Amino acid sequence: MDFLDQSVLDSLIDHIAVLDKKGEIIAINKGWINFSIENGGDLSKSGIGTNYLAVCQEEVRSGILQVLDGRINHFTFEYPCHSGVDIRWFLLRVTSNHN
Question: 6-95: CATH homologous superfamily?
Answer without folding.
Answer: PAS domain (3.30.450.20)
